[in-house]
Amino acid sequence: MKKNTRLIYISLLAAQGVVITLLERSIPFPFAFAPGAKLGLANIITILAIFTLPAKDSLKVVWMRLLVSTLLGGTLSTFLYSFAGAFLSYFGMLSVRRLGPKHVSLIGVSATGGILHNVGQLVVASTIAQSFSVMLYLPVLAITGIFSGIAVGIAANYLMEHVVTIKNFQREEAKSDRLTQMWYDAQYTEEFKELE
Predict the structure, then answer these.
(1) C-alpha neighbours within 13 Å on the C-beta side of residue 146
(2) Radius of gyration of the chain (CA)
(3) Which sign, positive or negative, has the C-alpha torsion 82, 144, 93, 188?
(4) Nearest CA to 172 among 25, 54, 26?
(5) Where does the chain have alpha helices with state H?
(6) What pLDDT, in 10s, does the model give residues 107-165?
(7) Is the pTM higher than 0.90?
(8) CB under 8 Å to 86, separation ≥6 — which residues?
(9) Count of C-beta atoms within a 10 Å radius of residue 33
């Protein structure tokens, strides 16, 4: 794959992540019982990056999305919350993905990211408040994180199966990365079974 093509793909993913983040900020919180909880739709982009790019490039997507969305309407506190949530979620999803498709699904990887995103934000909140009692809110946010993670995982799975460009990038990455090859083969096998 040409370097320029990869750079364009990384930039497009980051730009889409920024747009989704800004749109999500303008939507009222859907979870009335859990103030501060969000759907985390921008995690769709993070998952696509993790499953179609090498780790260093997917990390670039997360960084670019985080910095640009903060510059376009964030504050220092939103940056701190987003930074902690995004990177704990990112590294958690990378780790769980290493278990392979035989042990966890893409939706499971996404649900892990949803939970860890909330954990990261609560750690920042408890640090700022200098009180561990903020962490008592974790069970409520963990439940919303699981459900939103499942929804995000289903959306990402759909995109990976139906968008040709994403499939092509995953196939290209599979040529040089054994783990991506395992995930690509598992997805291809499932599609083949459905056609039979």
Answers:
(1) 5
(2) 17
(3) negative
(4) 54
(5) 3-26, 43-52, 55-71, 76-97, 106-129, 138-162, 164-174, 178-195
(6) 999 999 999 988 888 888 888 888 888 788 788 888 888 888 999 999 999 998 889 88
(7) no
(8) 46, 62, 65, 66, 117, 120
(9) 8
